[in-house]
User: What shape does this take?
Amino acid sequence: MEILNWKELLNPYEQAVSELKLKFENMMNEYKILGLYSPIESVTGRVKKPSSIMDKAKKKNIPNDKLEEEIEDIAGVRILCQFVEDIQKIVSLIKRRDGYDFKIVEERDYVTNTKPSGYRSYHVIIKYPINSVLGFREVLAEIQIRTLAMNFWAVAEHSLKYKYKGNIPEELKDRLVNCAEAAFNLDNEMSTIRNEITYAQRLNRIKDNLIASIIERVQTLYFVAKLDEMEEINKEFVDLWNEEDIDKLKAFDEKLRTMAELYR
Ligand code: 0O2
Assistant: This one.
């Protein structure tokens, strides 16, 4: 294989990964700002290393001039979620952007069609538009969507595949299949208590936002209110904070808002 100008080849992929990551992170933040449950738990991205591209090209007999056409995951973005149900929600979010931010080329549902290795994940291959100083072009990118449990398994199996250069001993392979089944059962079990978990997370989010708002209001009041008034407010805040009653915290936040209004 001739020496390639890797920097020039990979630069558009770097751009695609960083833009895609930002777009999915923004979706995640939008859910949080709206006080809604985000199906996206976290987003990571990477550009495949030249050595991995060369390995894949060799394994699949891909010539240098066909790398960009035939290796679909040079740019890769991974979206993790808490529950299996979130995967389809994320796929719908991606489909809504189809034709605007990128074009969907292919979908591979390894969640329903588990690979013999035990691998589960949902892959969406897209064509991503790149506007660079050199002009416009499109690059292929792979979006992998999986639960935290699926990811735990895939990362571990990937390391073993690397260690054994793709030839994992049979006994270890069997164990990995068992682990994949355990991860599958864990996902199913978590789904049964999904409502309880998401409700608890929502309450925590509301409480965190309320506390942040109260602290900000108290800090503003320090500049205008009387010292004995502030002492009382601080004491009330500590008591309510220990009590952890959301309704009482809400009422206190409202009381501080009215106080600040009066001082204005
Ligand atoms: P890396 O190091 O993650 O970039 P294939 O020929 O099956 O290897 P193909 O045809 O490109 O792959 O498409 P596929 O099946 O959608 O796989 C693309 C990527 O999915 C892989 O990239 C892996 O990241 C992940 N993947 C697929 N199958 C498995 C599996 O059995 N175990 C794990 N851990 N990951 C898997 P690369 O290039 O293999 O590796």
Observations:
- The chain has two domains: 6-192, 196-262.
- The longest strand covers residues 135-147.
- The longest helix spans residues 194-222.
